[in-house]
Structure formats: structure tokens, C-alpha cells
Amino acid sequence: MSLITITGYPASGKSSRARELHTFLQQKAGDSKQVILLSENSHSLDIKRSAYDNSAAEKQARGALLTTIIRLISPNTILIVDAPNYIKGFRYQIYCAAREVKVRVATIYVLTPRDQCREWNKLREGDDRYADETLENLFIRYEEPSSMVRWDSPLFTLLWSDESIPPNALDSIWDAVEKGKVSNPNSGTVATAKAPSDALATLEKTTLSMMQQIMSAQDGSGGVVPLFPAPGYSLKLSLPTRNVSLPELSRLKRQFVTAQKKVITLGTIERGSVDWSEKGVGERFVAFLEEQLQR
Q1: Of all helices (H) and strands (E), which one includes residue 203?
Q2: What are the boundaries of the signal sequence (predicted)?
Q3: Strands 34-39, 77-82: parallel, antiparallel or unpaired by DSSP?
Q4: Which of 55, 120, 200, 261 is surrounded by the fewest CB atoms within 10 Å?
């Protein structure tokens, strides 16, 4: 039905607004729709604030969050994503995931001054507190949402100083959830034919074979390595100048396969048909890996 992305500075009060919104939407939806609040520090994810202390841990945390989002998105579900979501590229990934399942989207921006965030962060204890250096770094790196771009629209700004979300804002959010425009990839799109019955088997077989080839081919110096997703057909993958570990590669494979399974199950509205041959799967997997490994 819809996906709501919560964004704002760390320690800005996003979780409080998310819980308030969750309660409101549950009351409005009643028994007709499931309303899920996905928080990065929930038991299912358990992402610590310390994950933002270094880029490797943060990247892994975002990957786990995105995988869970993709798993929970459903035409009969209102999903609220409570996380910093401070990178516009990551918000775009969330938007694309929602677009694939043909659900409505909305973005909630919790606007809080940095000094207030610092004060609230000091009141936190243990794993719930950001390190001071990390907090300042996230302030600098934060990319503010804009109603001018499709992946942040419709955009609702909530002020930290309000005791609760204003009733008119709640009503507007509900209208976006219930009646808003469903995002499409582009104009002139048509529904594709169903995936072939062996698409899932081809997906698993091709990605596993390519992953094994990558582990065997890399030597830590980077460069381009040839891969063979199908007999008589090769692809080239640009590797970073480091060894990609098996856990990292396995995690990326799971993310890719999870997203592709959604397409197999629910279909897509991209122009033209999706190629589920070993060649087609291999091309998409290489493109996905190059984007992820070069970050």
C-alpha cells in the first residue's frame, strides 16, 4: 500500500515521531491494513549507533536495512522506516524498491537544530548514544530531502518543537498513504510478462557460479576479471584494489537475489521484458556488484 521514509539528523527525535505516526496510522487503517514500524535498532535488525563510526560497518548496516525493507514491502502493508536515511542515494534505493512493488511513497523530515540533537544525544546511554565525533560527522554528511525530487515526494516536514504531530499534518500524511499517486518507473511503461518457471533456479545458479568465480579470480590488485554466466558468453567485472571477502560478497549476493525475487513474484512495470536467462541475470548482477564495490 505505502512506504513512509523517516529522515532527519541523528538524535533528532525521529523515533518518537515514528511511534506517534505508527499509532495514528494503526487507528486509521483498523483491521484492513497492516502497519509496520521498522526501526534500525529493533530486535530484528539490532543496528548499533556505533555502526556509523566507520564506513565499512555503516555500509553493512544499510545493506541489512535495505534487505529488510524489500522483504517487508507489500501492497497490503503500510511500512514506516525509522532510520537516519541521511544519504539521498539510499532514499532513492528505498524509493526504487517501493516502485517495483507499486506502492505509494512519502517522506517525513524531522527538522531539529543541531544543538538540540547534541543535547538529546548526551542524555542517551550505552549503545543508544552516538559518539561525539560520529554525531558531528553525520551532521556534515546529511543530505536534506527536497520536494523537488520524486524520491522524496510527497515531503512532510515536522518540527521538533511541536509537542505532537499537528492534526492537519497527520491528515495530509494519511491522504498520501491512502490516495497518493503510485510511483511508476517512467511514462509509457507497460506490464511485463510473467517470469519463466525456471527464473528462480537460474537466478540462484548464475549468481552462485559468478560469486565462486570472483573469489577464485581476485588477487587483491583490482583490475578487470572475466566471468562466464552462460556457455559461450562472458562478462567483465571491475574489482576494487583489495580482496573482497566471502562474507561481503555473500551479503551482496543476498541483496541482489532478494530484490530479483520480488520482481519474479510481483512482476515489474519497467519498459520491455526482463531477461531471466543466465546472460540477463549475469549482466544485472555485474552492474549491481560494480556499483556496490566501488563505493
Answers
A1: helix 199-217
A2: none
A3: parallel
A4: 55
Q: Yes or no: say if 105 and 3 are a contact pair by the CB < 8 Å rule.
A: yes
Domain ranges of the chain: 2-179, 199-293
Q: Which residues pair with 239 in a beta bridge?
A: 223
Prior bond to 196 cis, omega within 30? Answer: no
Overall pTM > 0.90? no
pLDDT digits (tens, 9 = 90+) for 85-138: 999 999 999 998 888 888 999 999 999 999 999 999 999 988 889 999 999 999
Q: What is the CATH number of domain 2-179?
A: 3.40.50.300
Instruction: Compute how many other C-beta atoms are within 10 angstroms of the C-beta atom of residue 283.
Output: 15
State how far the Cα of 204 lies from the Cα of 29, in Å rounded to an integer: 38
Helix and strand numbers, DSSP H then E, in the chain: 9, 7
Which residues lie below 8 Å from residue 108, measured CB to CB, with a gap of 6+? 4, 5, 6, 7, 17, 18, 21, 156, 158, 173
Bridge partners, 187 (sequence order)? none
Q: Which residues of 64-99 are buried (b: 16+ CB within 10 A; e: fewer)?
A: bbbbbbbebbbeebbbbbbbbbbebebbebbbebbb
Distance CA 175, CA 169 (A): 10
